[in-house]
Write a structure and sequence with these properties.
Layout (H helix, E strand, L loop, with lengths): L7 H7 L40 H13 L4 E5 L2 H9 L7 E5 L4 H10 L6 E5 L4 H7 L4 E7 L11 H10 L3 E5 L4 H4 L9 E5 L13 E5 L2 H14 L5 H11 L2 H20 L4 E5 L9 H7 L6 E6 L4 H10 L4 E2 L9 E3 L11 H6 L7 E4 L5 H12 L1
Parallel strand pairs: 2-3, 2-4, 4-5, 5-6, 10-11
Antiparallel strand pairs: 1-7, 6-7, 8-9, 9-12, 11-12
């Protein structure tokens, strides 16, 4: 492309990709192989063994780096495998500060696995930077943040956090799953590591489980690649192919996701039987201005509670939905509903859940790309 810098929509299709030499295939082939021939020991075509690297996975990793404006992408067997690799950068006695509202699987990995190895985790309200600063000490190594958070949709100022991290020589890692690089690019805002559950919006079709990391720093990339190869939690070539395929339509899907979510958020806000609506695009959202500054749109994840905060009412609504499928996960083309307290966040103790606002009556929606009139009609009949 010469010196011209290609824009995001073009990157999703062409970013980091090279022509296939063998037969001129337009799409990256699925290299379903475990090993590669060598003409002499150590003399090969760039690949030795598929745990270390695979051409299909490499094409995906290059694409991930391109769309996140990073230099190095790494693809894993799941989002949690990607987080696991990041935490293996640390040792006994090290400390990590994380948001107090985050995905239950991340919380479980932090507290039930890595705390056993002597890594200490602090969970705090990251919209309050003063309370975060108080937790930093000589043992602190990383700040781990989700924005928007799951499922309360809190927005955390990445640029402000980046300054705190740099002033204290800490790594800043951002889970960008909800926003995707279409809406938000944390590395450009000062983050060191971007993580994705690519299972969600990047792959986009609820048919893959896959995780990703993207970094700019080559030394950090080298450490993470060593851990990836040594621990072996890689994704296979078929899943790499499907995710690469999904990324090619990320920009058009996200546009429709966001358009639908906006109309649904307004519908819920105006509904007499709905109490609170959590979506950063609403001007009433406490972090709306930060979202406006660091995101190009507001995403398609919405949480809400019913009048009276009734658990029974929430369950009844979920059971009566037809187009919103009750299921774990999010980010597919189809709309999903979820009850976080009993599903995605059940591993977080009730008391801690409720401190962050995650009450038993909360419903989370992943708004798909169907006709929005049909989705609103489905919500309306279920709420009634």
């Amino acid at each position: 492309m010469g010196k011209h810098k290609i824009k995001f929509n073009t990157k999703t299709i062409h970013g980091g990709q090279i022509p296939e030499k063998g037969y001129g295939a337009v799409m990256t082939p699925i290299y379903q192989t475990s090993t590669y021939s060598q003409s002499s020991p150590g003399v090969h075509e760039g690949f030795e063994y598929s745990r270390t690297s695979n051409p299909t996975r490499k094409a995906l990793e290059n694409s991930l780096a391109s769309i996140e404006n990073g230099k190095h992408g790494l693809a894993f067997g799941s989002g949690l495998a990607a987080i696991d690799a990041v935490l293996k950068l640390f040792k006994t006695g090290d400390e990590v500060i994380s948001t107090n509202n985050l995905y239950g699987g991340s919380y479980r990995l932090f507290t039930k696995v890595f705390e056993n190895f002597g890594i200490k985790f602090h969970f705090t309200e990251m919209t309050d930077l003063a309370s975060l600063k108080k937790l930093i000490n000589s043992k602190t190594k990383m700040i781990w943040v989700e924005t928007p958070t799951n499922p309360m949709m809190n927005i955390i100022d990445i640029k402000a956090l980046s300054k705190i991290a740099k002033d204290n020589k800490l790594l800043l890692a951002v889970d960008n799953t909800f926003a995707t690089p279409f809406l938000q690019q944390p590395l450009d805002l000062g983050a060191d590591i971007v993580m994705h559950s690519a299972t969600k919006y990047l792959a986009g079709h609820s048919d893959v489980v896959l995780g990703a990391l993207v970094v700019k720093d080559s030394q950090l990339a080298e450490k993470l690649h060593f851990i990836q190869n040594a621990s072996g939690a890689i994704c296979g070539p078929m899943d790499s192919f499907l995710t690469l395929r999904g990324i090619k339509t990320l920009h058009v899907r996200m546009k429709r996701h966001c358009e639908n979510a906006k109309k649904i958020a307004i519908f819920l806000t105006n509904h007499s039987k709905i109490d609170k609506v959590f979506w950063p695009g609403l001007k009433t959202h406490p972090n709306h201005q930060i979202a406006k500054n660091q995101m190009s749109d507001f995403g398609a994840m919405i949480s809400f509670t019913t009048n009276g905060n009734s658990y029974k009412k929430a369950i009844k609504i979920i059971e009566n939905l037809n187009l919103f499928t009750l299921a774990e996960s999010l980010g597919g083309v189809e709309s999903l509903s979820c009850h976080p307290a009993s599903m995605t966040h059940a591993s977080i103790p009730k008391k801690e859940r409720e401190l962050s606002g995650l009450v038993d009556s909360l419903i989370r929606l992943s708004v798909g790309i169907e006709d929005v009139e049909d989705l609103i009609s489905d919500l309306n009949q279920a709420i009634r």
